[in-house]
Amino acid sequence: ADSVAINGNLSVNGTRLEIFNTSSNVFIGEDAGEQISTGSENVLIGKDAGDALTTGGQNTAVGRSALGGETTGAGNVAVGGLAGLFNKGNYNTLLGAQAYYFSGSGDNNTIIGYNAGGFNTGSANIFIGYQAGQNADGSNLLYIDNSNTETPLIHGNFSSNALTINGTLQMGDNLKLNDQWLSKDGGDESI
Predict the structure, then answer these.
(1) Cα separation of 191 and 181, whole Å?
(2) Quick check: 191 pLDDT over 50?
């Protein structure tokens, strides 16, 4: 088996490809991971992906400027152009172009959708859908919608265990609520 050993970076037409460096980082794309000092086990793919990251570890960024402003965060996953661009937090899962784009130092967020959670700075939020929770303020929130509305189709607050359905909730034949059955046909078990 033949092999090629390269010590240092490999440049192809001016773009950067660095694999298996001393800290188990993988960088593919122009300026991807260019500021890494002691950060380890990062996978940064795309132009400027994780380009400000210095000491953070176990981050995965795929897309142009994904996690581009992150410097020390750990355990983040950002997939999509500009996803988590200004993120300074830890353990966030960000899927979609511009997901959690202008956000700050929140931790433990799950954000899925274009520009979802765009301006939120809180922690432990779940935003699902196109621009869902884009302007939401706070932590421990649930937004499911396909717009940046303040009254999403499904809204929740994990701190107070409150769930709001902003629309019509339909049920099948039976629904159990507080150990009592609600029946669609109004039979003996209904309340």
Answers:
(1) 7
(2) no
